[in-house]
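>> received
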Amino acid sequence: MSDQSQYLKSDKLITAHYGEEYEHYYNAVVPPVFMNSLNVFETIDEYYDFDRTDKHKYCYGRVQNPTVRILEDKIAALEHGAGALAFASGMAAATTAVLTACRTGSHVICIHNSYGPLKDFLTGYCKEHMDISTTFVKGDCVEEFEESITDKTDLIVLESPSSLVFSLQDIEAVSKIAKEHQALVYIDNTFCTPIYQQPLTLGADIVMHTTSKYIGGHSDIIGGMLAVKDPALMKKLTANRELFGGIAGPMEAWLMIRGLRTLAVRIAQHQETAIEVAKILEKHPKVKNVYYPGLESHPQYGLMKKQQSGNTGLLSFEMNGTLKDAVKVAESLRIFKIGVSWGGFESLVFLPHARLEENACKVLGGSQNIIRIHCGLEGTDALISDLESALAQI
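>> returned
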């Protein structure tokens, strides 16, 4: 169906049908996986003159692919953007965004609790090879951004909520500051997904998703996405993805499309379980702090209600005890498996600060014994029972 405007009426219609022109695929209800590496042309002139923005014209798999394009159309619609690009990993997406937004001598403002490898990229490769400087801020106070921004600031990196202590940044306020200084705002929106937060509508310029998490949803792919609202910026990112070779593979894109179809119902269940788990932990005598934006006790609960329409399954809690106690709790869990990722169907546990010095932990928030858990789809009662049994071991 060439006119797909009816599918833009709701997120569920977008994830189910938008971007899928059934008449082009023999009316198959699920689009095919285009595994071809190239497309051929009738004439030399047709090759040289083809329009890369035409969704029915393709040339080479490093540039674009029909299966990938369906995924990109869906994400762009969900994020209310001018376009979206699928990448082979979240880091491929993130580094492409940084290298597109920045130049030699640029200044970047980045929150302390952003993704570790992205911080390493900024302070390592970008500093060494491009003389890019980075100022790190806590991020929950708008004044920090005002005080840190300079005439050389080209990019502000946000992650709201962050994935450990779940602090929020005021996306609208930070975006306003950025625009006054002609800087771009990049935000990792993996935690909320496009269902529960649309940063482009709040003023952000680039939205990133690690699609290995909730968009994929089944812990069987690695992928990333960028969504933008400015067509000119979209053009630059598209050109750079082609040069860097970071496009997602067609099979991974197909699996992401599959994941999108159930995204809304999955994250609703993740959220329902996580809020119940968080409330139980909040009352537990062996737990000092619980970090989850969906709790009314969260210090930024008001901001969460302003810019998010929901939360998902990731949260952290801090023990009333030692690191040794926290390790014992993590290793005593049976349903929660020890693993670094999150966003899939399974429940996971990890101690991100276990090998950090206390001073480093304080900068990031929390302490060495902070435990991060992802509440999967195994059932709320089962997960609560597992946690209570583990906590009883100390």
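>> The mean pLDDT is 96.
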